[in-house]
Amino acid sequence: MKPVILLVDDEEEFIQLLRDAIDLSLPRYRAVICTSAEQAQQQLASLDPRDLALVCVDQRLRGQSGLTLLSHVRQQCPRVPAVLFTGQATPREGAQARAIGARVLWKPLRLSAWVHEIRSMLTQAHPEGAPTESRGLLEHPSAPDSLPLSWRPYPT
């Protein structure tokens, strides 16, 4: 079975875009998406901790903060690389994320930079099984670097 990258964000279209980026750029990994902290905790309970390669969590989730979810992840999988991404975190929340060993990435994200960061974190955490895939479509030298990954739903 492929190692799992757990993606958690309540913006479903955004998280599907991140999953597609992993599928294209890191095919040795399986992206699992969750749209709530509760769903993520259920996924974590069903996973063998050794299969979890990385977790990416948005700070603003319905019902629970991303920091709280990352604290639960740390209890179950203390060494798994973690990312907290946000467009609204306070400096204190950023410091709390770093204190529990998570990298903070700010929205809007550049998709190619996000994939590069994930690949780098996986390489650092698992040097023996580092991602060695060739560049994905999103990291091709001719791909425009000015395309920000910014999902902001319009109010209806």
Summarize this structure briefly:
It is built from 5 helices and 7 strands, in the order βαβαβαβαββαβ.
Q: What structural class should be given to the helix and strand makeup?
A: alpha/beta
Work out the helicity level: 25-40%
Strand residues, percent: 15-25%
- According to DSSP, the number of beta strands is 7
User: What is the CATH top level name?
Assistant: Alpha Beta
Whole-number mean pLDDT: 84
Sequence of strands across the biggest β-sheet:
2-1-3-4-5
Distance between the termini: 41 Å
Could you state the order of secondary-structure elements as H and E? EHEHEHEHEEHE
Output the CATH homologous superfamily. Answer: Response regulator
Our Rg estimate from Cα atoms comes to 15 Å
Largest sheet: 5 strands, parallel
CATH fold type:
Rossmann fold
The CATH architecture category equals 3-Layer(aba) Sandwich
| Tally of alpha and pi helices | 5
Assign an overall shape: globular
Q: In total, how many domains does the architecture comprise?
A: 1
Low-confidence stretches: 133-156
